[in-house]
Amino acid sequence: MADDGRREDEDERSSGLQHQMFMIMEDLLDKLKLLDYEEQVLVKHNMKPLSRHYFVASSYTVSNPGEQFYMFNVIAAWLITLCGRSFETPQEYDDPNMIVANILTHLRALGGLVDFPPSKLKSGAGEHVCYVLDRLAEEALKCRQFVWKRPLYPSEELEEESVMGDDAELTLSKVEELTEEADEEDDVVDLEELKSRSSQSEVSVLRPEMILESVTDSAEWNLEVERVLPQLKVSVRSDVKDWRSHVSQMHQHQDGIKSSLKEAKAYLDKLLEEISKTQEKVSSREKYINTQLEHLITDYRNAQSKFREAKELYQQGSGGVTERSRTIAEISEDLEKVKQEMEEKGSSMSDGAPVVKIRQSLTKLKQEIQEMDVRMGVVEHTLLQAKLKEKNNMTRDMHATHITETTTHTYS
After folding, report:
1. Which residues, other chains included, contact 52 with Cβ-Cβ below 8 Å and sequence gap of 6+?
2. Using one digit for the tens of pLDDT, what is the confidence trace for 94-148?
């Protein structure tokens, strides 16, 4: 399902962008080789060399996000250090968000344009990863003052190729036309052949009596030969659809197989004879050894059966030992628990701290009781005063009412 989703995403993107990503990765690999990343990164970290499309995110390439992200971090850190900046090599268990943020800050400081979120770099592959590494590699080359130069092509090879392409090239159709013309002219008298034969006879008649010596220089002759040699070359372009070439190749291969088969058959027959002889010797020797060691084999079988019986007894005894050892362990655990309880009780009985606490609490209670008694006395005294004051007020009021009544009786 993930591969289908990636394939759909790639179909939505234009083919030009995909091709551009592949081209950026190839240029990046060339720049890393110029910076000698094999010795400074791969050998140092014990890594495999990068493929041509290692950081390309595509359904047609093998993806390993963890390995690609770690490789991206290591190469980016190395390129940043080549640019004259301090950057520690990230480890596998570092925070990926912090690593990506540090790489992007250094890229911005070097003048790179960052218009994508940092999460695009966590996958370890894609156009953004290729862009970041390519930009850092370009800055590293600038720091090393590396300048791209135009390629110099040798002129002689171009002349030879042009001569061979224009003058000395015979296609398969031309060869077929020549062969057909030769077949048609078989019945006609070849005048040129007669002239050559007559000229050869005249040369044989006019053969000089003395040996002729050459006056030409050997160096000039060699130069002339080198100059004319490309024109004498004949290159026949073989057509893939031509069945005649395939048939001739099949006959050649058949002849080669037959010749090699004749040579190899003798060696194989000899090897077969030697193998059969050695096999017979081995079988006879095996029979002899079996007869000689038969009583030892019976003794070994008896000893093996006794060993099995002893092993069964040992397994039974070991099973009882394991059960008893388990019961001993349980009993020892219970004993340890009882010892701990006894020690706790003994320490609590011998310890006088609780008694001291009880005495302190009793004295504190006595002090609080005295304070409460004082407070109760004060409250009783205030209540008594309030009652007395209320009683005085009542007697005063009664006295006042009595006086008023007497006065009213006198006036009446």
Report:
1. 25, 26, 29
2. 788 888 888 888 888 888 888 888 888 878 888 888 888 888 888 888 888 777 7
Closest CA relative to residue 102, chosen from 68, 136, 130: 136
Nearest-angstrom CA–CA distance, 355 and 34:
88
Which residues contact residue 386 at a Cβ distance below 8 angstroms, ignoring those fewer than 6 apart? none
Element (H, E) at 363: helix 353-411
Mean pLDDT of 327-356: 83
Domain ranges of the chain: 2-143, 272-373, 380-412
Q: Encoding tokens for residue 68?
A: 């690609």
CA distance 118 to 68: 16
**Residue indicated by tokens 């004295």:** 363
Most confident by average pLDDT, 49-63, 120-134, 268-282: 268-282
Rounded Cα gap, residues 412 and 95, in angstroms:
115
Q: At what angle do helices 15-34 and 127-143 cross, to 10 degrees?
A: 30
Helix 127-143 to helix 96-109 angle, to the nearest 10 degrees? 50
Longest dimension (CA), the chain: 212
Residue 315, pLDDT score? 85
Separation CA 99–CA 129 (nearest Å): 13
Contact 187/254 with Cβ under 8 angstroms? no
Are 28 and 133 in contact by the 8 Å Cβ rule? The answer is yes
Instruction: Specify the DSSP element, H or E, that contains 71.
Output: helix 65-82
Q: Is 364 left (phi over 0), alpha (psi -120 to 50) or beta?
A: alpha
CB 55 within 8 A of CB 72: yes
Whole-number Å distance between alpha carbons of 287 and 278: 14
